[in-house]
Design goal:
The protein is an all-alpha fold. The chain is built from 4 helices and no strands.
């Protein structure tokens, strides 16, 4: 799958967000978790990629099956404030 530059930017943004699960990225862009990891590896500096992997590995909010069933959103309500 080929993504436009603005889509790659959005995937990276979503991947860094704590509350956005990989399943939301898959729904919106058709990328699996392993696809997102490959994209992050290719688009980021090695040190930034390692920091991101350390941050998301095992994080409950990044996987729907590990999240509380009470959380139905993929982002914080304050995330999309008008600029």
């Amino acid at each position: 799958m080929t993504l436009f530059e603005h889509e790659i930017s959005r995937v990276i943004e979503m991947a860094w967000e704590d509350r956005t699960p990989f399943e939301a990225i898959a729904r919106e862009f058709g990328l699996s978790e392993s696809d997102v990891i490959k994209l992050m590896r290719s688009e980021m500096k090695a040190s930034s990629f390692r920091m991101w992997r350390k941050r998301v590995t095992g994080r409950r909010t990044k996987h729907n099956h590990l999240r509380s069933p009470d959380v139905l959103r993929a982002y914080s309500p304050a995330q999309y404030k008008p600029r």
